[in-house]
Amino acid sequence: MLRWLRNSFLTGIVVVTPVAVTVWLIVTFVNFVDSTIKPLVPARYNPESYLPFALPGMGLIIAILALTFLGALAANIFGRTLLGFGERIVNSVPLVRNLYGGLKQIVETVFSGQQNSFKEVVLVEYPMKGSYAVAFVSSYAKGEIRAVVGQGEEVIGVFVPTTPNPTSGFLLFVPRSKVIELSLSVEEAAKLIISFGLVTPEHLPDGAVPETPAKRGASRENTDGVL
What we know:
The protein is an alpha+beta fold. It is built from seven helices and five strands. The chain has helices spanning 2-37, 58-75, 77-91, 94-111, 143-150, 186-194, 213-226; strands at 121-125, 132-140, 155-161, 169-175, 179-182. Helix 1 packs across helix 2 and helix 2 packs across helix 3. Residues 212-227 have low confidence and may be disordered. InterPro entries: COV1-like.
């Protein structure tokens, strides 16, 4: 009986915790946006000034409408001209232009939907030989980096995230032959990293376990025999 009660209690925690955390994050985000946007709305245009109760999510709706309007404005000639004038002013400030340029490039890369941006999951030998870390292919090296690292071979930039916070990590440039390609999706790899490796995919992707030199030699002998 005690074992059944304990298992039922733990099962309840497993069922409720993801839902509770998700709801809490959504409510926290909506409240944060509301508390930031609502004070900027004049009282005569704020529906809450005429209602005896608050409207949750109104600030989020206003923010979405404002961003949509700004996007539509920036798409026409007048908006592009005004935006270009503002960027010229920002680029004239030494420290601000570096910060603005870097943030703009990151945001454009994330929201441009490029085919090769964080679309591939690999294993890279890091931080020492014989140990492997999950990484995301972020770019393809060109110019001096490719010439120095690859020496004629394709060189890729991989982002090695930290656990359990995948927003921070390390950028490594390695030859393509030094990584092991995985069939994991970006979502599966992110769950693996955030959960300290506790949440693992059910399937074992091809190439996840690198072949030992003995296995490589055996496979080559078998191939030569067939040929």
